[in-house]
Amino acid sequence: MLDKTYDPKEIEARLYPEWEQGGAFKAHPESAKPPYCIVIPPPNVTGSLHMGHALDNTLQDILIRFERMRGRDALWQPGTDHAGIATEIVVTNQLAERQINKRDFGREKFIERVWEWKAESGGTIVNQLRRLGCSADWARDRFTMDEGLSVAVRRVFVTLYREGLIYRDKRLVNWDP
């Protein structure tokens, strides 16, 4: 017998893990299907998702699911961004609460603490996306400080700098000119 009202908590909490474990969201690059890929613009690991993220991720999910239904090998690449300055401030403030100066802490220990913060905060973001029902390929989740990925990011920035497309100056601009 069907309930009178739809209870998303009960239904979604049961279905989503089944889809994920069944590989419904996985991409298969070795297949002969034509590829289709969207990379989630990585949200900053320092916070949690807001309504803009919910809208953006909903639209991406619609596109990915549509292309899957059309028979394409669809990859929705999830990830989070290290948000260097913001993360440094958060971690530095956490250390200061424990009367630890980040300079006394040392670079390696500080980076370890950043990774701990990423596990804590980044997990919140990924869980929020899962709760939204996002059909990303979670086995491919990336973080901008991951080995290999950070090398690729650095290579792109150096190339853009050499081509004169980005530059270094004395001011920080918080908007895209």
Outline of the structure:
Helices cover 51% and strands 8% of the residues. It is mainly alpha-helical and 177 residues long.
Please describe the structure with a list of short key phrases separated by commas or semicolons.
globular, mainly alpha, 51% helix, 177 residues, two-stranded parallel ribbon
Describe what this molecule looks like in 3D.
With 177 residues, the protein is mainly α. The protein has helices at residues 8-21, 51-69, 84-97, 102-105, 107-132, 149-162, and strands spanning 35-39, 73-77, 79-80, 142-143. The longest helix is centred in the C-terminal third of the chain and has 26 residues, at 107-132. The N and C termini lie far apart (58 Å).
Largest sheet: 2 strands, parallel
Report the span from N to C terminus: 58 Å
* Main sheet: strand order: 1-2
Helix content: 40-55%
User: Helix count?
Assistant: 6
Taking all residues together, what is the mean pLDDT? 86
- List segments where confidence is low: pLDDT < 50 over at least 5 consecutive residues: none
General shape = globular
List SSEs in N-to-C order.
HEHEEHHHEH
Number of strands: 4
Report strand %. Answer: 5-15%
Query: Radius of gyration from the CA trace?
Result: 20 Å
SS content category: mainly alpha
Can you lay out the helices and strands and say which pair or pack?
Elements: H1 8-21, E1 35-39, H2 51-69, E2 73-77, E3 79-80, H3 84-97, H4 102-105, H5 107-132, E4 142-143, H6 149-162
Parallel strand pairs: 1-2, 3-4
